Amino acid sequence: MFRFLARTVRFLATFVVLGFIAVWALLLYVRYPNPIQVYKVGFAQPSKTAYLLPSRDVSASSTATPLLMSSKAEVLPSTVTWYGSAITFQEFLDKTSTNAFLIMRDGKVTYEWYRSGIARDQRLPSYSVAKTIISILAGQLIAEGKLKESDKLVDFYPELKTGTSFDSITVQQLLDMQSGIDVPDNYPTGPSGWGSPIAQMYATTDMNYFLRGHRKMLFEPGSKGDYRSVDTQYMGMIIRKITGKDIATLAHDRIWEPIGAEYLATWSLDKKGGIEKAFCCFNAAARDYAKLGLLIKNQGKAGTIQVIPTAWMKRLSTPVENLDNWGYSAFMWHPYPNVDMMLGLHEQIVYTDHKSGTVIVKLSDNLKDDENETVAVLKALSY
Hints:
By secondary structure, the chain is α+β, with helices and mostly antiparallel strands. The chain folds into two domains: 2-30; 46-382, 3-Layer(aba) Sandwich (Beta-lactamase). 36% of the residues lie in helices and 19% in strands. It contains 13 helices and 17 strands. A hairpin with a 3-residue loop joins β15 and β16 (348-353). The longest helix is centred in the N-terminal third of the chain and has 28 residues, at 2-29. It starts with a helix and ends with a helix.
């Protein structure tokens, strides 16, 4: 009996080891991280991913400047409207798994809150807030004459030509989510969805391999708008090609440095020393996200420096598409008139109301689809 049990244990142990090796080999073949890394990232809270993926530093500004504080702290309304009912503001923060919430009025911080365990300098992921950073970099290159919206993607990467309408995709179509590339943003829930294209793009250890394998078209470029992160990834690749520099380096030199960012940020990569996941995965402290909002509020200026060219600031703020019932243009959302909003998965929000001069930052772990309700609360707070 003992020998039988011993043989059974050895057989099961061998089976488990061989199975683990097979899974590891399969993930390696499809350019996924190893099983341990997949498990860590797949089951982590969104706010933890900034520390789980390989990344490149975006150093704090050499002239870092703290945000100005209002002399009088803001008293928020006792209740807000949530799905038609009144709830307390703290309940709103709790229901939406908020990690950091910051309000600026006329350039000064009037309210700042962090969930217990979240530090002021802690890097929190932006997800698609990163897209607006890519847009700012693109606008700078356009102003410098190094890029045109009429340029085609394959002008920069001729090796990607397919002989289909993919070859006609322009920079403008990428910026306005009109490419038609068949990589929809149907984010998966749970392990069963990890093989979806958007999950593959997020997890891949070889971005070039992923992009080469996903060039099929769903609709003709420019025929309509449909939100898809692959458009931003391609814009990031074009920017890298034009400048010969990493996106993280450009973000530091062209944005983080002039806005006086206080804290170290990072940009997640496909692998160590690899390519930035330009469509997401910029990680920074809440106060520095607020500086991005302040940059937008001040029409692209940081002090006396015009960081966002004036013409591009107008382009950013003028909706050209309607996606999910909100205006959209050049990787910027417009849920209401005179509002520019950077929005990322799980409610990473930098909300700028130009009429009232309000900037609101909300960084969250919200796994529910509450964006419409949440943005309505921000609108009410921005008055």
